[in-house]
Amino acid sequence: MTNKAGFIRTSITVLCAILFILPLWWVTVSALRPENDIFRYLSPLSWGTLLPLNFTLEHVVELWSGPFRQAIMNSIIVTSVTIVFGLAICSMAAFALAVIEFRGRTLVFIVMVVSFLIPFDAIAVPLYQTLRNMNLQNTYVGLVLPGIGNGLAVFLLRQFFLGIPKELREAAMIDGMGWFGVFWRIYLPLSVPALISASLILFVFQWQAYLWPLLIAPAPEYKGAAVAIAQFSSQYDVNYSLIFAAALFISLIPMVILTVFQQGFSASVASTGSKE
Amino acid sequence: MMQRNKLLVAMAFLAPAVIAVIMLRLWPAVSAVHESLIAPGATSYSLENYEYIFTDPVFLQSLRVTLIFIVVVAPLQIAIAVALALLVNAAIPFIGLWRAIILLPVAIPQSVSAVVWGVAFRPDGPVNALLVAAGLDPQRFLTSPDQAMGSIIVIVSWIGVGYWMTFILAGLQDIPKSLYEAVRIDGANRFQQFWYVTLPQLRRPLTFVLVANTVANFLVFAPVQILTSGGPQGSTNLIMNEIYTRAFVSGDRSSALAATVVLVAAVLAVVLVQFRMMRSAEDK
Amino acid sequence: MTFPKLGQGVSLAVLAMTLPLLGAGQVVAQQTVVNFLAEAADFVYAPVIEAFEAANPDIDVRYQQVPFEDLNAAIESRVGQGDSSIDVFAVDTPRVPAFASRGYLPDEEANRERIVAAVPNPVDQEQVSWQGKIHSFPMWTSTQLLFYNRDLLAKAGIAEPTPSSPDDRLTWEELLDLAKKAQEGGAEWGFTFQQVDRYYQLQALFESAGAGPGLTGEGLLTPDLTNEGWVKVATWYRDLYEAGISPRGVSPNQTNDLFINGQAAFFYGGPWTFGRFEEAEGLNYGVTYVPYFEGGKPVTPTGSWALSVNPHAANAEAAYKFVEFATLTAEGAYKTTESNPLPPVNAEAYEKWRAPGAAPAPQVGPALGLITPEVQDTAGGRPPPPGDVGLGTGVKRGVFDPPDGPGRQAAPAAAPGPPASQLARIR
Predict the structure, then answer these.
(1) In a mutagenesis test of the C interface, which of B60, B248, B253, B255 is the best target, namely the one with the most C β-carbons within 10 Å?
(2) Residues whose CB falls within 8 Å of the CB of residue C33, separated by 6 or more in sequence, listed in order
(3) How far apart are CA C251 and CA C248, in angstroms?
(4) Helix (H, G, I), strand (E, B) or coil at C288
(5) Do C402 and B142 touch (CB under 8 A)?
(6) Angstrom distance (rounded) from CA C123 to CA C171
(7) Residue C169 DSSP label
(8) What is the secondary structure of A112-163 as a DSSP string?
(9) Interatomic CA distance for residues C273 and C277, integer angstroms
């Protein structure tokens, strides 16, 4: 790639990134300015539209000294646990569906696919009853459970596993490796990008989760960030300053994680290299 | 004997996920279907709820709007996602940061994204300010029956495109360089490399993205609920919003569930067709 | 504050998950727990909960907040499915008929005498009634005021409205003209509703024009949206937007800022906004009675929250104690408004509320002279039957948002409003 082509590519990429981040930039600016300034500079466009002219940290401080800290912690806990357990069971299921040839495989796969077609909101109420009967309301377990059996993640991993040549497995099994060994020593290490993508799916599901946590864990100690942020809107007044300050934190954390993983993306694939 | 062993092993691998999916997704869904077969105030099963929704012009319009939405949005978002993936599949300085930025909108609570874009599209908002500065007329966007859907499409795409891009990027990086070298030796140009190497190799990730994207688009809800409530004149009354309105605003739970069953059936049909399509592409 | 790494995070998480499980099933010695679900921020109910727990040390009231938009969903799901984990919940009074007809609100006729004694205003009683029976304990009420920007009016040469009595108020027609004049004088927008598109505010306009509740016939389940009154209001509403007096597309929560930033000359909103208006530097504003339609009568929106006990509550006795404290006793009712600028319906508590110096926000004080007659005399309840729920949506679709633009009445054949079929499903 010539320098000029590289330069053009970089410029376009940066431009796209800027376009994408504009709305979030506005949110950041709004969180860092007095409440009455938020809607003051919308039009005509001026410096004030994109720069926090009367900079203040009061809303950020107010937010962080309240129960929102706990809410973010809860979201992090629930999401991390979901990712760990979710990856484990979804990758195992995907392995079975992609690699082990058994009767009824297609049927199970269809069941998996159907499961993520069902809008979660539609089953939230009956699901709530089931978990409540198991006394799981206001627990972390109740919050995590619906997130770990993710048909979409299974689907993704299965697609990826299908692309790994059968010969690798056959060779290993001739050498005496069992199924679990094949899974653990061959398929998983080759699938780091897919595992990262699957983590992304699990992450988004839990980080954004709103109706479910509201139903199953409304107690203040268990509130997650997405629910907490909604509580800055009351019937009569919406505290945009706090909402945007909270949005700032809710975005910063994934931002950091995503950046780190994105770098990891290229690095890991560079090492797996050609699959021949 | 081998077959039996294999089955047992497969079951062992599948058990936790299948149990989770059945208990936490399918079983509640069965209960929802069950409720949809009972009309309000009745004790026996009937198809009354289904008759009701299929004769309700509001529901039918909602179905129409949703289907048109899917047909327009899916190719649009996937094309953009592929383009972006190709763009960022390079070792540019800070590439991790740029990719993360494009991906970030999906991790923001949808309520916040909706509010921010709602502000952007206000009659006195920044988008109109830009248009006016460029000498064009200010537009009505979310309050215009002709533009509201387009505005929603912009919002939903901003949220999701980075997400889809990530999966395609993973697929791109999985393509062995040797394949490209092979065709380059045969004199293929950039476009031909894309057509003969990249696209076929992307078939599996693309299948995933196509199906997942379609499902996600069928289920779009938050921006509609927050910004337009399905209006103006039902032009943005996507089906999830319609179901929500039925269930929680009109309090008509059983017809909402009937509508949900119809939705799932529709999505399943579309998805099966897509699987077929992608499979036959392989045989070529 | 550091975030634990993944490994630590997992062990932390496992620990965190098991701790609550250990705690579950162990009853704290001799304390009955009352779970209270409502929409307001914690600080609103904190004073009354504190006062109640002080008087009843064996009862522990646990407050759970659910955002307004989702409260109905939460109530439908939990109370509607027989969940006993909520004991007390707040009911938005427009929802009382719908919830009562579905059995979520037990009939409180046994307590009627005490409720009527504490809350003598029949409009307030009606707010929590269905089919003549009381189904909830009324707590707060609300009203609306007309705010105006003194500077913008002065610039346009408009005299400030200074009515000598509640009867001497502006008409909506007059307001429209004044709003136009204000715009000619430089205001960006002449007038805006606070809760744009919400039936709560607009219903009072329809009532004021004599349009009726929009429903008629047996059980009030037949739509009646094409009479003269409705046409009058719809036409007025249409003119408002077509003449560019009000902005389209500004969501209800952002309208306050239009007024604060000096962009709107007249503003129709609730007394809860005083706090923000006072904080706004450079905002020189005044308050007056809301307008009415010429030939009609003044009507103000009313109704707010009431408290109910879940018919499946785990601790009904304690729950009733709390609800009665918060609504029927003057002390409890007053406490519920200590951190909250809404007037209580409890008559004794109201007197205390409006006593000079006792007002929750100092700015509300001067406006009390306006609020009291509105709450007592002009308050207009929302339409009674369960059909009102479909009505709100139907009116929205047919009147505010019909094919030709806001306010344009569809032909009688295609009358707006909830179709008879939808109303027929209410059984």
Answers:
(1) B248
(2) C59, C60, C62, C315
(3) 9
(4) strand
(5) no
(6) 24
(7) -
(8) HHHHHHS-HHHHHHHHHHHHHHTT-TTSHHHHHHHHHS-HHHHHHHHHHHHT
(9) 6
Report the C-alpha gap between C340 and C359 in whole angstroms: 10
- C-beta atoms surrounding A60 within 10 Å: 18
Question: What's the number of domains chain A is made of?
Answer: 2
Q: Where does a domain end: A17, A34, A56?
A: A56
Give A-chain residues touching C66 at CB under 8 angstroms. Answer: 214, 218
Would you list the domain boundaries of chain B? 56-283
- Quick one: tokens of C195? 């809760």
Closest CA to C138 of C153, C124, C120: C124
**How crowded is residue C171: how many other Cβ atoms within 10 Å of its Cβ?**
16
Does B109 sit within 8 Å of A247, measured CB to CB?
yes
- Which of B143, A46, A29, A23 has the alpha carbon at shortest distance from C251? B143
- Kind of pairing, strands C32-38 and C59-65? parallel
CATH value at residue A218? 1.10.3720.10
**A chain contacts of residue B105, beta-carbon cutoff 8 Å:** 20, 23-24
- B55's CB contacts (< 8 A; 6+ apart) are C421
For each of chain C's 427 residues, which pLDDT tens digit applies?
Answer: 333 344 444 444 444 444 444 444 444 457 889 999 998 888 889 999 999 999 999 999 999 888 887 887 788 878 887 888 889 999 988 888 888 888 889 888 888 888 888 888 888 888 888 888 899 999 988 888 899 999 999 998 888 888 777 778 888 889 989 999 999 988 889 999 888 877 777 778 888 887 776 667 666 667 677 778 888 888 888 888 888 888 887 888 888 888 988 899 999 988 878 777 887 888 888 888 888 888 888 888 887 899 999 999 889 999 999 999 999 998 899 888 887 778 888 888 888 887 765 555 555 656 777 777 777 777 776 655 445 555 555 565 555 554 444 444 433 333 345 556 666 666 5
**H/E element holding B187?**
none
Contact state of A235 with C20 under an 8 Å Cβ cutoff: no
Fold of domain B56-283: MetI-like fold (1.10.3720)
**Claim: this prediction has a pTM higher than 0.90:** no
Domain that holds residue A100: 67-274
- Angstrom distance (rounded) from CA A153 to CA A90: 6
Residue pair C365/C271 in contact by the 8 Å Cβ criterion: no
**Cβ within 8 Å of residue A185, ≥6 positions away:** A172, A177
Distances (CA, A) of C345 to A36, C348, C351, C353: 32, 9, 10, 10
Closest CA to C140 of C269, C272, C303, C275: C303
Q: Do A237 and A256 share a structural domain? A: yes
Give the closest-approach CA distance of C278 to chain B in angstroms: 24
Residue B245: list chain C partners with CB under 8 A: 393
- Kindly list the residues from chain B whose CB atom is less than 8 angstroms away from the CB atom of residue C421: 52, 55-56
Alpha helices (H) along B89-147: 95-103, 110-120, 126-133
Q: What is the rounded distance in angstroms from the CA atom of residue C304 to the CA atom of residue C89?
A: 14
In the structure encoding, which two tokens stand for residue C296, read together? 């009609």
In sequence order, what are the residues at sequence separation of 6 or more whose Cβ sits closer than 8 angstroms to the Cβ of residue C103? Answer: C311
